[in-house]
């Protein structure tokens, strides 16, 4: 009997599992320490994964969910595209959503790992590049009516071939991008990450051999499969529905509803997505990206233990609906905003469908992304800079049945994996002055358990005019709460972009837009908080007072949203007025 046909012993299984996790973590560390752009080295907007020869994902990092779900169909699309034309020393690059990429700013590198002449693994690194060409810096073009107006599409292409670097191909790619120096540094960092992963995987094979390692990997897949099937089996068989509304964020087509219907049979689940026809606006989502949204909605509900690999999804069948719809777009639909909008709405719909099947697992939604990109000419160097301000999309986490939502942990699409980076490093790298970065008061959804706060980020250009691009949503409708949490003052929970002029006049932007500001002017971006859980008038009074003293909620919101009256001078609770307000609210609930 071969090793692959017999049970792997638990010690070897644990060692192989640890080696896989170490290989992936070292890929992440390599990328962080060698990348050049702030999107990579500060914000960590990248993901690394390992695949076997099949190719199936054998380990996903604790990285960006919007990347990880799409990596599985993208890896298969790339492998199928090249077929037998894959050789030792090849490196493939790709961003095209038609080939299951997420959006064209997420450029992915695939390195096949050969051992004794046999393809055994793939090391894969996907990252959000600072610019991808096109008419708008940083790629988010709200005026695009088709994908050709958004930037450079890269179908699967070899940038190293049998160990030889294709400088002509790489030059073609970088010649279409702004801030070339950053792009070159980030590409080299991705190559380094994939190479470090390859080195560690070969060392693992040297120690245990191909058959033993494959047997361990299959056992880890089976373990993940068992974890998910055990959960699905605990849910009553039946059909369940969830839906969420995507707000009109500037396309003029009105609100759009995305729905998810799930059918559970024994340990299997079928997920059907229904969405409107695709639109001439940059919020369409191609299939690879939508798979990420669906799987994130599932994982938010499931919260299963590791390992996290493709075995988790053996029991899951996904139907994204008719081709040519918002969540199953076809060429030439514009799409660059899709990794936040409509992905986060799709995720909410899927999560809510599962929660309809198991109400005891209900949680509030996390804040959706509502951020900005900036660009300009650095007056000290004459070079163009472009960056996505990931700090500007840091929103709040949703509350649960047991606890408040975490502050500054979102947005939903990144689910805690994004970092905002140090203000000083951003000011060192770009000709900007950051006047403010902190929690946005009153942004967390009210509830018995409060949603986490979103953030406010305010910037001024130094010595030059700066382009500001607003993208995302959460500026019309606040984040969804759960278990009866009401939006008593929804205007406090919304995202928004404000341009503050030198004379103090402030322009408010609630739609996706491209604008410019000059020295002395400021762009202030506020992100929505997470949703609340339960009746806010049942929140512990001491917790409300603590939030007021820490400026998480204002004195006015404490009274309006929680029925807690706080003296503005002493910051003490007026117990008599508070009791009267809460009793009044209770009586109104009974009448309603």
Task: Give structural notes.
31% of the residues lie in helices and 21% in strands. With 592 residues, the protein is an alpha+beta fold. The chain folds into three domains: 215 residues, no CATH class; 173 residues, no CATH class; 53 residues, no CATH class. The strands form four sheets. It has a seven-stranded antiparallel sheet, sandwiched between helices. Strand 1 and strand 2 form a beta hairpin. The termini are far apart. The N terminus is likely disordered.
Q: Order of strands across the biggest sheet?
A: 2-1-5-4-3-6-7
- How many separate domains make up the residues? 3
* Percentage of residues in DSSP E strands: 15-25%
- Helix proportion: 25-40%
Which regions are unreliable across 5 or more consecutive residues at pLDDT < 50? 1-5
Q: Cα distance, first to last residue?
A: 70 Å
GO cellular component, one term: cytosol
Keywords: Ligase
Enzyme class: ligase
GO molecular function: 5-oxoprolinase (ATP-hydrolyzing) activity; ligase activity
